[in-house]
Design goal:
- With 498 residues, the chain is mainly β.
- It is built from no helices and 36 strands.
- Strand 25 and strand 26 form a beta hairpin.
- It is globular.
């Protein structure tokens, strides 16, 4: 078990339990994100517009909050559902640009950039689709925005019907794009595969792994069902033009879980770890299509190194599909990165109803339906900061406790702060005691009886022991023992200077 350090500003989550020494009547829970009541939040275009049928983060799949400009930005897939093959229509699916001040109410600025049916009065920013990232450390202003673009359809050696090539594109503003090299020149395994996540990772200490991408592969499964299923591989590099594939690909596969498909995923660096909300897909044998209707929701995997991921409570959902009759009651496609603003985590997704019959294409009985696009729109679900997972008692009634591994006390006067929720004075609360890590004994004055009840639902609640602070513990290494009562949830703990 790695030694943790208590320093000003550090926070410790329960994305995995590697830093937990023991638990009694306490479980780790994946928190289900709350869908916004205004979903879907991005409107479809008018009947004659390019995004009249689809407007969602699917093939184009990035939403960010731009800290410099203080605005939300989205690069989304739009489609008009024309009944023609995609290789004959450059606007079959393409990329639109939208902005929002609050992440809920979106505008589609008229860019005047790309002509559609004789007019440039639209918000199309690219004929291809893909993932976007803003690289604030990029010294070349013309390359501040980076995009891995799939399409348009083009001749492709070895493929008689051609295909969409993957090209790196750059932009100074996220709107006007300049073509760069083909990504498949360095990663040929990406030919005809979808890149599903693109991340500028300033958290990784290795500069050779600063850029991370994830892409979709297909392989024969080790379970009944389709002859090929979707899994996910990853690549790394110091920049977007010099990427190498992970030696351990695929990094997540349906062969390792109960799902039938892992279609798309989200990738984010978060508080020293990595989160991967992924599309958990299954086929319901209801005589629809070859294998039955495809359904899917979002579940969670995490990693310490950004390469080796493990599922977290895979029976629990991060985002649930809607109830029957709701706009997202079929399956959910997650955007490529989480958005963190203030103390809220925004998870954008493409919601698709049960009218998506015979999906994906290899499940179709009638191949002509491939070019009929049902409606797909953008929704958002939110979590509190650090709220991907939490600790709670098994029945949210009977008390329990959890003890951390050793924590080294850093310099300066520090206080312990907790991120707690679902508390109610005298019914649901948290107490903490401090142990000497070497002797494994509670320190004088720091037992739970001396601790004031933590019963404020907040992100940073200070913990007090009758006016004593961590500076008084008299030990260089400690353990913390959290006592949970009733329905209280513990999301994280951290340290701040007094």
């Amino acid at each position: 078990m790695k030694m943790l350090t208590a320093i000003d500003g550090s926070r410790h989550l329960f994305l995995d339990l590697d830093d937990v020494e023991s638990m009694y009547n306490v479980v780790q829970t994946v928190c289900e994100a709350t869908k916004h009541p205004d979903n879907p939040v991005l409107p479809l275009g008018a009947k004659d517009e390019w995004d009249s049928c689809q407007a969602s983060p699917w093939a184009s799949r990035t939403v960010i909050y731009d800290d410099e400009e203080r605005i939300f930005k989205a690069w989304y897939e739009g489609g008009r559902g024309a009944d023609v093959p995609r290789e004959q229509d450059p606007f079959w699916i393409t990329t639109g640009y939208a902005i929002s001040e609050d992440g809920i109410h979106w505008q589609k600025p008229r860019l005047g950039h790309i002509e559609y049916h004789g007019s440039r009065d639209n918000n199309i920013c690219s004929l291809g689709t893909g993932c976007v990232t803003k690289d604030v450390r990029e010294p070349d202003a013309a390359k501040r925005y980076k995009m891995i673009v799939k399409g348009p359809w083009a001749p492709l050696e070895g493929y008689p019907h051609g295909g969409p090539k993957l090209r790196i594109c750059y932009s100074p503003d996220g709107i006007h794009w300049t073509e760069g090299p083909y990504l498949t020149d360095s990663l040929p395994e990406l030919i005809l595969n979808d890149v599903v996540a693109l991340l500028c990772d300033d958290q990784d200490p290795d500069p050779q792994r600063r850029i991370k991408i994830a892409w979709q592969i297909k392989h024969p499964p080790r379970k009944p069902g389709p002859p090929e299923v979707r899994a996910k591989s990853m690549g790394f590099g110091p920049d977007i033009e010099h990427l190498v594939a992970s030696a351990d690909n695929p990094v997540i596969s349906p062969d390792d879980g109960l799902e039938d498909e892992i279609h798309f995923l989200m990738l984010g660096a978060y508080e020293g770890m990595y989160v991967m909300p992924y599309e958990y897909g299954w086929y319901a044998p209801n005589d629809t299509g070859v294998y039955g209707s495809y359904f899917g929701d979002i579940r969670l995997a995490v990693s310490r190194d950004g390469e080796h991921f493990r599922r977290v409570q895979p029976h629990q959902k991060t985002i649930a599909r809607g109830a029957r009759g709701e706009w997202d009651d079929g399956f959910i496609v997650i955007a490529d990165k989480p958005v963190i603003k203030d103390d809220t985590i925004y998870l954008y997704y493409s919601g698709n109803g049960e009218q998506w019959q015979e999906w994906p294409p290899e499940n179709m009985c009638d191949p002509s339906r491939l070019y009929v696009l049902p409606t797909s729109q953008m929704g958002v679900a939110t979590l509190r900061r650090d709220g991907f997972t939490c600790l709670e008692t098994t029945d949210r009634e009977t008390p329990g406790h959890v003890t951390t591994g050793p924590i080294e006390i850093g310099g300066g006067d520090l206080r312990l702060v907790l991120n707690v929720g679902d508390v109610d004075p005298g019914r649901s609360w948290v107490e903490v005691e401090v142990l000497d890590a070497e002797r494994d004994e509670v320190l004088d004055g720091f037992d739970r009886k001396e601790c004031s009840d933590v019963c404020e639902d907040a992100i940073r609640v200070p913990v007090a022991w009758k006016a004593r602070s961590l500076a008084d513990v008299g030990a260089s290494q400690i353990r913390l023992r959290f006592f949970l009562y009733g329905a209280a949830r513990l999301y994280s703990y951290g340290f701040e200077s007094l």
